[in-house]
Amino acid sequence: MDEHIRSIILLNKTKTLCVVEPLHCTFCHFLLHVPPWGLFGCANDLGKMMQMYLNGGWYGEDRFIEKATLATYTSCYNCEDGNRRGLGFDRPITEEDDAGPACNDASALSFGHSGFTGTLVWVDPEYELVYVFLSNRVHPNQGNTQLIENNVRTKVQQVLYNAIIE
Fold first, then answer.
1. Cα 152–chain centre separation
2. Does residue 17 sit within a domain?
3. Is pLDDT above 50 for 42?
4. Do the domain assignments include residue 21?
5. Exposed (0-12), middle (13-18) or buried (19+): which is 81, by Cβ within 10 Å?
6. Is 65 inside any structural domain?
7. Nearby residues of 72 by Cβ (< 8 Å), 6 or more positions away
8. Which of 26, 27, 48, 79 is most buried by a 10 A CB count?
9. Does 107 fall in a domain?
C-alpha cells in the first residue's frame, strides 16, 4: 500500500461504510515484518461477528463455529493458576472494581478482545449484550494514552449496563 494513502473508504455488500486505515502498530511492523498498516473492520461487521458468538456460533440460518469450539475459546483457561483469559478471548476481572478489559458490571460469562489501537469488542451472554468500540488510540502517535488513562472504553460500556440493569 502506498504510504501516502491516509485512508480508503469501502462499501461492503450491505452498503455499510468501512474505513481502511494505516495501522499504527510498530510491534506488527517490526516483529512480523509486515507494513505498518492493516484493515480495520467497521462496527456493523464486528457487531455481526460478535452477535454470531453470542448466538453460539450461528448467524442467521448459518452455523460458522461449533458451540463446543466457541465454549473452548471463551472458557477460562488455567483459572486455577490465576489466569482470567480464554484460549481465544479475554475475560473480565470480577474480583476487583475498575480493573481489566471490561466494566464492573460485565458478567463472569462475558468475553471479548481489546486491540492495541484501543478497540474493544465484548459479548455478555448473561445480558445478551454485544459491545463494539472502535478507536485509534495511537493517533497521532503511541504517546497518546488518554483512552487508557481515562478508561474511556469501560466507562462507555458501563453506561450500557446501567441502562439495562435495574
1. 14
2. no
3. yes
4. no
5. exposed
6. yes
7. 86, 87, 88
8. 48
9. yes
Domain housing 113: 43-164
What are 83-109's pLDDT values in tens digits?
Answer: 888 888 999 988 888 888 999 999 999
CA atoms within 13 A on the CB side of 90: 16
Per-residue pLDDT at 166 exceeds 50: yes
| 57: Cβ contacts below 8 Å, ≥ 6 apart | 63, 64, 65, 66, 67, 69, 70
DSSP, collapsed to helix, strand or coil, labels residue 125 as: coil
Contacts of 136 (CB under 8 A, 6+ apart): 21, 24, 117, 118
What is the count of structural domains for the chain?
Answer: 1
Do residues 127 and 69 lie in contact, with contact meaning Cβ atoms separated by under 8 Å? no
pTM: 0.76
Q: What is the DSSP letter of 156?
A: H
